[in-house]
Amino acid sequence: MAITERSNGQQARGQPDPAAQQRPPEGDPAAGPPGHGPVEEPPGPRSFGGILADPTIRPWLQRGVVALVVLALVWVASSLLLGLVAAALVVVGDVVRRNRTASTVEAWQKASAVERKTERQLRSLEKNGYRVLHARAVPRDDDGVSDGRIDHLVIGPSGVYAIDSEAWDKRLPVRTLSHRKLFHGPFNKKDRLDETAWEAGLASKIISEQVGFEVPVQGSVAIYGPSIPWKVMRVRDVDVYAGNRARGYLRRRPRILTVTDVERIFEAAEESLPPKYPDSD
């Protein structure tokens, strides 16, 4: 999310036959059978620059160049067999590295490093019946505009969770006070917890209206960086835990949803909570 100007020269010379204007010229190769538009020419061969610009081909070209260099160096220093083995290891290693660091969600182009870490943990839960949406906006009831974002909305047998991934300074300790306050060094994280609880509560309301029954959404914060001296602590109605425990946090909970419930809730959430970055879709 062009107007073509036509010459009036024919009308200046007289009144032509309207039917003749509508008929394509005889022998015009662009005119197809009656009722059909112009015949599209098949695309020509791609240029070398176009091939290099293809994001699916460029990584393989880069791997190939590096593999050839490694092959040549090892061949000269040792033997052809060792060179082939080294080149193969280079290619396999790069494929594994890219798969581990790349996000599986095309719309999520602005993911942070800690968000990608949580995503990798959640990806392994798919075989256990969990469905995940990343970087979803939480629209307000009145105008559909949202200031909030749920990093990971997880729907699975143990329930529905809104997880925010946080990178905190590892030099500052994390502590709680009476399950009502969370401190990172001298900083009170009350506002951050209240924001997560608000996002989870609004997501619960929106999804519940879509499916026709109440769907509680538990807010949680996965913290990366500082040491967390507990497994899971609920502070201001938000679960707080170390980022590397995100997968265990979900798996250790009792099953409360059926496969049908999970799929129904997932479809409702996907429809009612839009991607935060729709321009990347």
From TrEMBL:
Residue stretches of biased makeup (Pro residues): 31-45
Transmembrane segments: 65-92
Entries under Pfam families matching the protein: NERD (PF08378)
Limits of the NERD domain: 110-230
Record region (Disordered): 1-50
Keywords associated with the record: Membrane, Transmembrane, Transmembrane helix
Superkingdom, taxonomy of origin: Bacteria
Stored InterPro entries: NERD
Residue ranges, compositional bias (Polar residues): 1-13
Name of the protein in question: NERD domain-containing protein
Annotated organism of origin: Actinomadura harenae
Phylogenetic classification of the source organism: Bacteria, Bacillati, Actinomycetota, Actinomycetes, Streptosporangiales
